[in-house]
Amino acid sequence: NSIIEITNFENFEHSNLIIENLLGEQLKLFPIKFKNCKFELQATDFSPGVYYYTIFNKDNIRLQTKLMSVIK
Predict the structure, then answer these.
(1) CA-based Rg of the chain, rounded to a whole angstrom?
(2) CB count in 10 Å sphere of residue 32
(3) CA distance 22 to 7
(4) pLDDT at residue 11 above 80?
(5) What are 67's strand-pairing partners?
(6) How far is CA 65 from CA 12, 44, 61, in A?
(7) DSSP 10-42
């Protein structure tokens, strides 16, 4: 399991954390409900590979994107 932690995120209302594969297909969506929050990801939910996780604000503007890899 892995944890994505978001801290001190201002203006979080109606923002989302989205996980996508390299083809840009959305696999998971997590609403961001608090200024500081954690999302636990289960390795069983993903095949081995590389993924992006991105934070979008309420206006659907991309704020931050990071790569994540799943190794089993």
Answers:
(1) 12
(2) 21
(3) 26
(4) no
(5) 52
(6) 16, 22, 11
(7) SS-TTEEEEEEETT--EEEEEEE-SSSEEEEE-
Residue 48: other Cβ atoms inside 10 A: 9
Residue located via tokens 């979008």: 56
Give the C-alpha separation, 19 to 1, whole Å: 15
CA distances from 31 to 25, 48, 49, 55, 72 (A): 17, 24, 24, 10, 27
Q: What's the pTM value of the predicted model, to 2 decimals?
A: 0.83
Residue 5 burial by Cβ neighbours in a 10 Å radius (0-12, 13-18, 19+): exposed
**pLDDT-derived band at 44, boundaries 50, 70, 90:** confident
Residue written as token pair 């939910």 = 45
